[in-house]
Predict the 3D structure of the following.
Amino acid sequence: MQKDSSSVNVNAAGVAKNTYDAIVIGSGISGGWAAKELCEQGLKTLVLERGRNVEHQKDYPTATKAPWELEHRGRMPRKFLEENPLISKAAGFGEESAHFFIKDKDHPYVQEKPFDWIRGYQVGGKSLTWGRATQRWSNFEFTAPDRFGYGLDWPIRYNDVAPWYSHVEKFIGICGNKDGIEAMPDGEFLPPFEFNCVESHLQKKIKEHYKDRHLVHARWAHLTQPTELHLKQGRGKCQARNMCMRGCPYGGYFSSVSSTLPWAHKTGNLTVRPFSVVHSIIYDEQKGKATGVRVIDANTQESTEYFARVIFVNGSALNSTLVLLNSKSNRFPNGLGNDSGVLGKYVAFHLYRGSVSASIEGFQDRYTYGRNPTEPILANYRNLHKQDTDYFGGFTTFVGAYRPRGAEDAGETELGAPFKSALSKPGGWRTYMYMQGETIPKASNHVRLSDTEKDQWGIPLLVTSVGYDDNDEKMIKDFLTQSSEMLAKAGCLDISPYDTHQAPGLDIHEMGGARMGRDPKTSILNGWNQVHQCKNVFVTDGACMTSTGNQSPSILYMALTARAANHAVEEMKRKNL
Amino acid sequence: MNRREALAATARVLGGSIVGAQIFLTACKTPEKKREPFSPDDIAFLDAVGEVIIPTTTDSPGAKAARIGDFMRVIVTDCYSDAEHKIFVDGMATLKALSQKKYDKDFIKLSGEEQNTLLSAVNKEAKAYASTKREADPEHYFTLIKQLTTWGYFTSEPGATKALNYLPVPGRFEGCVPYTEGEKAWAL
């Protein structure tokens, strides 16, 4: 398969039939945005998705199922777990959501170090099952690697992305509060979900004890008060069911399937081709640019080529990197745009190992109505203006309180009516904090193609060589200490700090591999997400990340995608592409 | 995203770890052993045991109405490891034998009071065992039965809708509402 386009023999009619203005590889959270922007600008756009089709509402088989309608009440059968030890670990994975995740044996990869690579191969990708937290990055995060000397400088700043954050926020619908916190900039928000009584208590206590720590509403992709623009998408108000990962029949949270893809479809410019595994990008040496994409049909193994003026790579961080690595030509023997040898390197992720749980007395006369699909957040308070810890980077903290069912002494009661009664009532309140921490990109944390092993489509397997470092251990320690202290000051009891020691990857925030930068010698992409050495190829998913910051990354991918897509259209108009 | 927290809270209530949950953590490849299917008598027996643990009360049906025996059959068959399966099946035999030994009758033929007396003693034994057992030691069979009964009952239609307050589509979220002692908990 690894041949240059010069050797490909396709007749002119075939080429015309398979030619579009733009090709988007991947239909997940960033691919959907590329499709929307490009189609709206009038470009005939082909979206290639390696998995099956998923249609809004129609393909959410468990969306309205009651607990007793799930055969194993949410638990996966033993045989499935034994066959799928990797994917079963994913947050939110269960009988009600399993259909939106891969099965282990279908998609092998080589773990040189333990790395849990969580994937969802279908139209909509992981946007169906994402966490939905959508805080903006602050300028602290864009500048910290350079300011403190732990990484390559980003070629862009907060102000470059801010208008695109607004553009995305208005369209997808973000609920939150304008808090005026420098470390977590405000955006275009719908009203937030309320705090419960214990969360309000924690907010008050933390404010009392710490001047620089702000427990506020996080920002979430939920329609608490849909606007005209959301209603036009066919989406409605979030019903507070908190069953998001099954797919939302109301369109209450944002996914490609409920929002961007149907919107793009309405333009008449969109073609989505499911079951299309992208083998590589075709590079034309005479033209000095990419001309198309080689696709293998997932079911028939048939190979087809599609052509376009611009190509957007949105296959998820590691798969996009894999596609570039596998796009070999005489000009780029080590992968497309990889003269520098940086492709596949500087892979990083978010540190999710630390959490603290506790109980809190009181508030027995308070309860909640409905199910909040969001959580409060404690904005990053570490290493902002200056380096003030013994490690690099910062972390954000998700915080919450809830009142589980079952009186505390249920286990002690007699069998029968007293036991039943104790379990029918709410128990005492519980609280928790968990971290989402920055990790430091390093050349040694990398992915590459296997020299020997291939997948069922003949594509080399990805080798992951990504692990923790000392910086991570120090940050976890600090998080656990600080969080335990805050909960203690808020009057919590039974404070239990916990380190899962989980492998990287389970955070599902893997980033980098084709990082952005100013210099082609040290980066793959420029400040517009264009491959430095092949400008009509744009990579706008997690692969582009120069550093990880501490905020949930999906909305940044969406903003960068919209920004890049509009740049691509302008460049096409200027005949530069 | 607080699945770990939820698991921990349930374990605390029941005084033990959730059986079957460890399979989430370690994927042990065990050869499939042949398992005898549950008989209709087994299901009736488990219904009766479940009904003692969670009985019909004035406001809601009990575990038998939730078809708890059939639920246990599904989970023990499909989700339990071979080791857990053996503890459960041996435990059923132990309970049946206890009934014969003490009352010379099948468990399902006992009076409500006799069933209660027998299971209360076993419940005490299971709690005493749980309080001294090391983490790696197997669970007591009655701990498994009790966990399955409570899990199955409160996620069943009668349990969720009658013993609890079932609200599939809340429509809105209110963070801080009054609660009066005795009111039912939300089912979800």
About this structure: The longest strand of chain B covers residues 174-178.
